[in-house]
Amino acid sequence: MSSHVPNQARVIPLRPATAAPPPAAKEPLWRHVVGDVLRRERLAQERTLKDVADAARISMPYLSELERGRKEASSEVLAAAARALGLGLADVLALAHGELARPARARPARTETEPTAVTSVVSGRDRSSGRAAASPHGGMCLAA
Question: First CA to last CA across the chain, in angstroms?
Fold first, then answer.
């Protein structure tokens, strides 16, 4: 009778096993951020899609697609939509910057029905003191 020992290798790891790093927070897409800014400003002004689309000379379905983040706006279309809302491109950028500067976990989920007034960012004024509000990064910020 032969004694047969199974031929098994023992594996010794060279490095201790570490847990996988947590997944990085997913960066929002630019079209989603800009769409949210356009929609919030339109709703804050209590204006309809048709009203803003007509003022911007773009189609109502296209403006809706922009607001929902389904389409990427050209600079010309974005400028026209901003102007129709009484904003400049710098205002849209400042508002989008405010969205992007917030930590991902503090960003609200995208909602279609909740308007948010953004006039203090657009005017660059602190609501409490009336003074200009600036972020430490040199841009305008919303005074809480």
Answer: 86
Q: Is this prediction's pTM over 0.70?
A: no
CB 132 within 8 A of CB 126: yes
| CA dist., res. 133 & res. 142, Å (int) | 7
Q: What's the CATH code, domain 30-123? A: 1.10.260.40
Residues of the chain with pLDDT under 50: 112-144
Non-local CB neighbours of 101 within 8 Å, separated by 6+ positions? 135, 137
Domain boundaries, the chain: 30-123
Dump pLDDT digits (tens) for 83-109: 999 999 999 999 999 988 876 556 566
CA distance 105 to 63: 28
Among 54, 61, 43, residue whose Cα is nearest residue 111: 43
Nearest to 77 by CA among 34, 29, 122, 28: 34
